[in-house]
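TL;DR need structure tokens for one chain.
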Amino acid sequence: MRKAIVALLVLVLLGAAGFWGLTSPAAYALIRGNGQVSPEAASGPARQPNLDSGRTLFFAGGCTSCHAVPNQDDKLRLGGGYALKSPFGTFHVPNISPHKQDGIGSWTTADFVRAMREGISPDGRHYYPAFPYTSYQRMSPEDLGDLFAFIMTLQPVEGRAPGHELPFPYNIRRGLGLWKLAFLDGQAFRPDPGKSESLNRGAYLVNGPGHCAECHSQRNMAGAIIEERRFAGGPDPEGRGIVPNITPHPTGIGGWTPDDLTTLLTTGETPNFDTVGGPMGAVVANTARLPDGDRRAMAEYLLSLPPRQGFKKPE
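>> reply
TL;DR here they are.
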């Protein structure tokens, strides 16, 4: 009996040690991080950030949609505070303004690159994937450096958002290490040499900074995108209705032309003379500020996706 108890304790200790090791941010960085992208590559001594590129990426990513202070007109005040409701609890979007105490003003470019690609804070904590680093990991180090430099030109905003409101076990942040090993592949975007430059640009914007699949896809029980349902729509992550299918299937954008989709990304108008609203209205407010060539590239890529049946709400 005594031997059995000792064996059980040893197994428990080994299990706890394994969990602690595998969920460590350092373990993720060792296994997946920096696989293709060195944070230092974004801020080498000879490199000057391109603020025009950073501005484009800022609006492609719709940073204002989540991080602007709610209920105020200046969408460039990135003080955070928006409450993002999800099946796992409520996430309060943080301050990413250049404020040195309350925002990210004290971060280095390498800190920013690691947060965007590995979901790890400068003090070594996991970020929850409500911050869509599963998409941002596709961005190049140079683009992340440009984006960070642009954000640093904005007004510092004082004040911090409240902490997340998550029930057990989702409040155990350490457990995200296992989630990342399962669902965060650490791979940067690779252009397809068999496709046009425009199509590759669209693929990069949609899958990287634009993170379109994060809302327009069905998710599994762990909250990760189901690859076979990517872009085919699904339940609204905030629990209000259904997010539409954006593949060229008859239940999605089948029959649309590149001009139709470019117009939607510019004005919000659909081919049937409707106008998008809600969260997509905020998305269009950002895509409208992109160069026309980028909107057309996004439209070209989305219309090249495999058609997939849209999500049907269970009856």
